[in-house]
Amino acid sequence: MADKPTELPEDRTGKRPRDLPPANADQPKSNLPGARSLKPHWTERLATFDRRWVFLAMAIAIVVPFFAPLNLPVKASPRVRALYYSVESLHEGDVVFLSMDFDPASTPELAPFFRAVALHLKRKGVKMVLASTWYAAPPLVERYIREMVDRPLIGPDDTDYKGPPDRAYKQNVDYVWLGFREGKEAVIAAMGNDLRATFDHRAADGTPLADIPMMEGIHQLKDFDLIITISAGFPGTKEYVQQVQSRYDLPIVAACTAVSTTDLTPYYDAGQLLGLVGGMGAVAEYESLIGKPGLGTQGADVLNFGHLVVILAIVFGNFIYFAGRRQRRKRGQ
After folding, report:
1. What does the pLDDT average to over 151-180?
2. What average pLDDT does the segment 69-85 reach?
3. What is the C-alpha separation between 273 and 275, in angstroms, rounded?
4. Mean pLDDT over the full length of the chain
5. What angle do CA 226, 293, 179 make, to 5 degrees?
6. What per-residue confidence (pLDDT) applies to 61?
């Protein structure tokens, strides 16, 4: 009688050794004895690129233009040129009205414009009347008056400036600060009808408007040679156009934040705004026209270099992705 084949003992799982997978079945083929290990492709190494380097590059792009201004050349748009020539056409002794309608959040875009337009007006000897319909604006406006109106903006260190010099203005002689009035569109409409009554016939410091020589003959908004609105939102430029521009045929130019530019451009196209400066880039254009690069130009440099870093990061990431995909196809993955 033939001998039966010897059966192998079962293990604890109930499987015989011949039923079990090889001991090295789960080990990658590249790690098996005698197999050649594959080095990571350069795209795989760059795919694990530390993103903090991108943050560092962005930080450098933001900081460097402030300490080393590049003053990149800019070309003024028709809207900015129109505002520039509206101010340039004024004569010594003319009086303009500036509506300062902004808050601290919008000062990075609007404060550089006020500095530039104040220099433009002062070097031409144009007098200014300032007011606001924003409750957060007075502390800012009063600081700007001390820094940019009460003292010259051009000093002996401004060797890059080639235009006419400005001078220190005197309160209630060369400029009047009327202060703040609440009421939004109603206040704007009231100024169009009777400016003096809207502010109780007094300047912000309590001086009667009748005692200020430069206010002689000025009773309504239509009595000004130009109206300049510096607006961060509501109420602001749009409300001036809607409430008083068409009614009194007022010459108005405006400066606004970048996000408001699209809302105000139709008014410029319709001729209801004589000029428009919208955003940091447009302020840089205006500064180039008056010949004095300032914070607007520095801010535009920051935006330009920041955008360049973002574009390079996008190109770099896409290049790594497509190069890596080509390599994976070669490997058959």
Report:
1. 91
2. 87
3. 6
4. 86
5. 40
6. 82
With contact defined as beta carbons under 8 Å apart, do 135 and 99 qualify? no
| pLDDT, greater one: 328 or 273 | 273
Q: Is the pTM of this model over 0.70?
A: yes
Q: What is the 3-state secondary structure (H, E, C) of the chain?
A: CCCCCCCCCCCCCCCCHHHCCCCCCCCCHHHCCCCCCCCCCHHHHHHCCCCHHHHHHHHHHHHHHHHCCCCCCCCCCHHHHHHHHHHHCCCCCCEEEEEEECCHHHHHHHHHHHHHHHHHHHHCCCEEEEEECCCCHHHHHHHHHHHHHCCCCCCCCCCCCCCCCCCCCCECCCEEEEEECCCCHHHHHHHHHCHHHHCCCECCCCCEHHHCHHHCCCCCHHHCCEEEEEECCCCCHHHHHHHHHHHHCCCEEEEECHHHHHHHHHHHHCCCCCEEEEHHHHHHHHHHHHCCCCHHHHHHHHHHHHHHHHHHHHHHHHHHHHHHHHHHHHHCC
Q: What is the pLDDT of residues 182-211, one digit of tens each?
A: 999 999 999 999 999 999 999 999 999 999
Express each pLDDT in 234-267 by its tens digit: 999 999 999 999 999 999 999 999 999 999 999 9
Region label for 177, one of left (φ > 0), alpha (ψ between -120 and 50) or beta (otherwise) = beta
For residue 295, give both structure tokens: 């914070």
**pLDDT at site 220:** 96
Strand order from edge to edge, sheet including 95-101: 175-180, 127-132, 95-101, 226-231, 252-256, 275-278
**pLDDT score recorded for residue 6:** 56
